UniProtKB/TrEMBL annotation:
Gene behind this protein: glsA
Known catalytic reactions: L-glutamine + H2O = L-glutamate + NH4(+)
Known partners and oligomeric status: Homotetramer.
Coverage span on the entire protein: 7 to 318 of 412
The protein's name in its UniProt record: Glutaminase
Keyword terms, alphabetized: Acetylation, Hydrolase
Family stated for the protein in its record: Belongs to the glutaminase family.
């Protein structure tokens, strides 16, 4: 069967209904009260084609915080600004096989990849700016261009992230000691990082952000070139190998699409050249990936042969 077509909204709704019947496992993130209060039954999906058509079902327009789904987009922005060579003096491209908050530095003092917290904080610290406020302003602007609309910070989530983020500050401190942090001030790295995690998005935003990568860096609706073609390719490469933390191998095997998850319950997945998908369902597995989000993408991949190594 072909995935794109007029019946796609219905197909998405039916796939969601099947997943909802089958799975209710997982636990909503509870390290801050704002996430602990998320509705465990919320479930939404949007697919955005590179031609700019969007298809959605369920809670497709519910806002939630982007969390770690921000990481590939900030990585893309940093690579575009500085060149990938410069970025990779500070952070590697190896799947760590470790949890998202692991203490991770390779033999050169670099976090293993830009999608675990240590590597994401380093990546954020590299964005050129005179101070933390300006750094976040530039990041917010870049992520808004990926989404095609202005994104805002959930101030309550940000406050909680900042007051509880001791481990993230410690990770930044280790990178600073190892000489790989982009600034000599830990807060100038972690403050913009906490804010970027607290940006509010919907599955439609995520689908369009993913579709911009699928479309080689050009937003399908605004037609703006957000990042270069090579940057889009580099970002998808890291998403294909490191996007789902210590489940990245199982994900590559079963779903076979570049992707990134976040503890807010969001996941983006990209079918290069074709479309982006955003899914949202708050309960998480032990790795911090949305249980229903993973199941949804597994089903779509299996039903429509979306795995990158499927025969077209
Ligand atoms: N704000 C979270 C943290 O830094 C994001 C982690 C995630 O989404 N996996 O711990």
């Amino acid at each position: 069967p072909r995935l794109l077509g007029d019946a796609l909204d219905r197909t998405l709704a039916e796939t969601m209904a099947g997943v909802a019947r089958r799975t209710s496992a997982g636990r909503v993130a509870d390290y801050i009260p704002e996430l602990a209060g998320a509705d465990p039954d919320a479930f939404g999906v949007t697919l955005a084609s590179v031609l700019g058509r969007t298809y959605g079902a369920g809670d497709a327009s519910t806002e939630f915080t982007i969390q770690s789904v921000s990481k590939p987009f900030v990585y893309a922005f940093a690579c575009d600004e500085l060149g990938a060579d410069v970025v990779h003096r500070h952070v590697g491209v190896e799947p760590s096989g470790e949890p998202f908050n692991a203490i991770s530095l390779d033999g050169r003092g670099r976090p293993e990849n830009p999608f675990i917290n240590a590597g994401a904080i380093v990546t954020t610290s590299l964005v050129p700016a005179p101070d933390a406020g300006e750094r976040f302003a530039r990041i917010r602007d870049a992520l808004s261009r990926f989404a095609g609309r202005e994104l805002d910070v959930d101030e309550d989530v940000h406050r909680s992230e900042a007051t509880t983020g001791h481990r993230n500050r410690a990770l930044a401190g280790l990178a600073l000691a190892a000489g790989t942090l982009g600034t000599d001030d830990v807060d100038a790295a972690t403050d913009p990082y906490f804010r970027q995690c607290s940006l509010r998005v919907t599955t439609r935003d995520l689908a369009l952000m993913a579709a911009t990568l699928a479309n080689h860096g050009v937003h399908p609706l605004t037609r703006e070139r957000v990042v270069g073609e090579r940057t889009a390719r580099d970002t998808l490469s890291v998403m294909a190998t490191c996007g789902m933390y210590d489940r990245s191998g199982a994900w590559a095997f079963r779903v076979g699409l570049p992707a990134k998850s976040g503890v807010g319950g969001g996941i983006v997945a990209v079918r290069p050249g074709d479309f982006g998908i955003g899914v949202f369902a708050p309960p998480l597995d032990e790795a911090g990936n949305s249980v229903r989000g993973v199941a949804m993408l597994e089903d779509l991949s299996a039903t429509f042969g979306l795995h990158m190594f499927d025969h077209a």
